[in-house]
Design a protein that fits this description.
Elements: H1 3-7
């Protein structure tokens, strides 16, 4: 079983630029980590 399946993660991941917008801060991160975008790739550097 995949980790995403075990965690009950989202089945659809948003990729930045795929449809011309960034994912919302509370949407699942596009990398598939299962974290919210704001806590993963959306975190300030």
């Amino acid at each position: 079983m995949s980790e995403r399946h075990l965690m009950g993660g989202a089945t659809r991941a948003s990729k930045p630029g795929a449809d011309g917008r960034k994912p919302g801060r509370n949407e699942p991160c596009f990398c598939g980590s299962g974290l919210e975008y704001k806590r993963c790739h959306g975190a300030p550097s």
